[in-house]
Amino acid sequence: MNRTRSKKSIKDEVARIVAGFAGFLYWCAKLCFIEDKATHKPIAFGLYPCQKEFSQGLLKGEWLLLLKARRLGFTWLLAAYAVWRVLYFRMYTVTVISQDKEFAADFLDKCRFVLDHLPAWLKRTPTRDSKTRLEFNYKRHGSWIRSFAPTKRALRSLASDLVIIDEADYVPWLKKILNAAEPTLETGNGQLVILTTSGGPDGHFRQLWKLAKNGKKKYKPVFYGWDAHPLRDEAWYKQEKESHEEDPLYMKREYPRTPEEAFESAEGRIYALFTEDARFVRRIPVHPDWVRYRAIDFGGVDPFVCLWIAQIPGEAPGLTVDPSCVETINEFLAYTNGPDGQPADENNHAMDAIRYAVVTFGLRGRIHIYREMYVLDSARKGLSVPDHARRIYERSAGETIKRTVADRSRPDSIVLLGQMNVPTVAHRQIRGGTKGEIAQGIDLVRALVAGTAKGKEAVALPGLQNPRVRKGVRICLEGTRQAADGYWRRAGKLRRKLARA
């Protein structure tokens, strides 16, 4: 057999080796092309500073947790990285999980585009090319890239050197997928890269982010905001914001400045102005003379919630929460409308309790939620209403509670609470019809939130369905405390009139 090689093939092999030794960043800058979104033509992959910085973590094998603004090119970066890895490393395997089949196919298409536009001497033709796999098994090279939509058992029996989870906040069963992947990757010294734009405060990604920030997970948390793109400036930000002025949370959600902005701004949030900062979340010593209330939501079987609320005299309308009330804060951030435009039946237990108190007791000034009892899986734990009542009574020791309110749908439980030294009234309805009552109650709580938020954004708060409440919000923000108090007294008369109707 003739084993002689042409000078060209030898030269190409030398060039491949040199490019490999030069490293990934050189390979991207000199040899890699990506698709221009506008023209669909190949353009040189000039890495942004944020992409170069992120690549250092990739090359070190770090487990990366990336929260980002939109359109920063990280999916292209990871597609190029996957191709580079399988071309230069034998038996290297990459698994990509995207939010659905369309996005999974799109990732492989990006990999194909990178491959197709490499120089001729660097190209490798896949030995297998399907909807979910690119395989490179020439000369027993044995490397591949697989990309597929998530399932409950994804990665259960699939070992990879690199796992990429794209738009993780929108991937179903993320927790189960990671529970399957993490032990295998740790044992095999593999790498896990999770990237996403924020889907809001409710989800496993935010939990991972908090754990990683506190050093309790192996992941390195990385954030890149809208200004990580070198062609964006304040003028761009202003123009983009003006073009979406009908959605005041659009920029925070899609182009956040900070991780906090990204997490607090889920689409469809009911209390959109509530943020996890000192305006709303702070510790306030509760004075013995302040009037105090309790609000209870039975929550079916999960969870049981009781909130302790103090009314701060002499201050304009507003709402604050003690930092210890973690679940209440989480619900404020995660409470959203469902596909039907109505409040979703999740993350609503503390929210229902607050609404009961605001509606039934006519709370219109500054209120402070200073304590919570949030019991998950109470039925599974064998806890009954008397058990909860005993804990409520014990935690209220030494306090004078003016009144307690609970969900009116459980009259027997309300009686039991009274028998256990927690006298309770049923939540008062504002207007006939459950949806109407919920909508008006939410509006009243929104008004308190807006009173704390201040600013033009609060005045333009969308979603207030009651014109009288909208007027009340403006008075709270623009007028004096006396004007606000007077308005709410008049609104209270209307509320009582509606309740009698």
Class computed from helices, strands and strand pairing: alpha/beta
> Major beta sheet, specifics?
8 strands, mixed
Q: Do you know the CATH architecture of the largest domain?
A: 3-Layer(aba) Sandwich
In the residues, how many domains can be counted?
2
Please state the overall shape, judged from the principal axes of the Cα atoms.
Answer: elongated
Instruction: Return Rg in Å.
Output: 28 Å
Arrangement of strands in the largest sheet: 5-6-7-4-8-9-3-10
> How many E-type strands?
16
Number of helices: 18
What fraction of the residues are assigned to beta strands by DSSP?
15-25%
Estimate the helix proportion, in percent.
Answer: 40-55%
Query: Unreliable stretches, pLDDT < 50, 5 or more residues?
Result: 455-465, 476-481
Return the CATH class of the largest domain. Alpha Beta
CATH topology-level name of the largest domain: Rossmann fold
Arithmetic mean pLDDT: 83
Tell me the name of the CATH homologous superfamily of the largest domain.
Answer: P-loop containing nucleotide triphosphate hydrolases
Distance between the termini: 100 Å
Describe the structure.
This protein is elongated. The chain has about 500 residues and is α/β, with parallel strands linked by helices. About 40% of the residues lie in helices and about 15% in strands. The strands form three sheets. The protein has an eight-stranded mixed beta sheet with strand order 5-6-7-4-8-9-3-10, sandwiched between helices. A six-stranded mixed beta sheet has the order 13-14-12-11-15-16. Helix 17 (about 465-480) runs antiparallel to helix 18. It has two domains: about 10-265, Rossmann fold (3-Layer(aba) Sandwich); about 290-500, Nucleotidyltransferase, domain 5, CATH 3.30.420. The chain contains 18 helices and 16 strands.
